[in-house]
Design goal:
It is a single chain. The protein has 133 residues and is of the alpha+beta class. The chain folds into two domains: 5-57, no CATH class; 60-131. It is built from five helices and four strands, in the order αααβαβββα. It has helices at 5-16, 21-37, 44-58, 74-88, 120-131, and strands spanning 61-68, 92-99, 106-111, 114-119. Strands 2-1-3-4 form a four-stranded mixed beta sheet. Helix 1 packs across helix 3 (44-58). The longest helix has 17 residues, at 21-37. It starts with a helix and ends with a helix.
Length: 133
């Protein structure tokens, strides 16, 4: 039976919980050896991403990925943070802002399995599809 990246990440998270930094080093070294022995080392990057997500969830941290055409003001970021706090019921919101002028305007917000696309590019595409019935 193959072990999934999520299973590896959860195991590593449980193994490192409440241990000293020195113990964590030993656990991680053994974990890497295990991946190598199981011929699963190619999954390392994906496991690491899932592990980091697990750790952030334990600490109540919510990552939010926001794509905009131009940098957002602090006021707009604060409003978005407050809305996301209400939705996720988490207090610690980390915004990862990406500037992408190809969206033309508006905003794209992603977190967990949630995607809110209010970009001008998407609105134009939808309008174009409707015009061609």
């Amino acid at each position: 039976m193959k072990i999934t990246s999520l299973q590896y990440a959860k195991s590593l998270s449980m193994a490192t919980e409440g241990v000293s930094p020195d113990q964590s080093k030993d656990i991680i070294n053994n974990f890497i050896k295990l991946l190598w022995e199981n011929k699963d080392f190619k999954k390392f990057e994906e496991i690491l991403e899932k592990f980091e997500k697990q750790e952030k969830q334990k600490k109540g941290i919510q990552n939010v990925y926001i794509t905009v055409a131009e940098s957002m003001s602090k006021e707009i970021k604060d409003k978005i943070i407050e809305k996301i706090k209400k939705i996720t019921k988490r207090e610690n919101i980390v915004i990862n802002e990406k500037i992408d002028n190809t969206i033309l305007g508006g905003i794209i917000i992603e977190f967990n399995d949630y995607l809110f696309d209010a970009s001008l590019r998407t609105k134009i595409r939808k309008l174009g599809k409707n015009l061609y019935f």
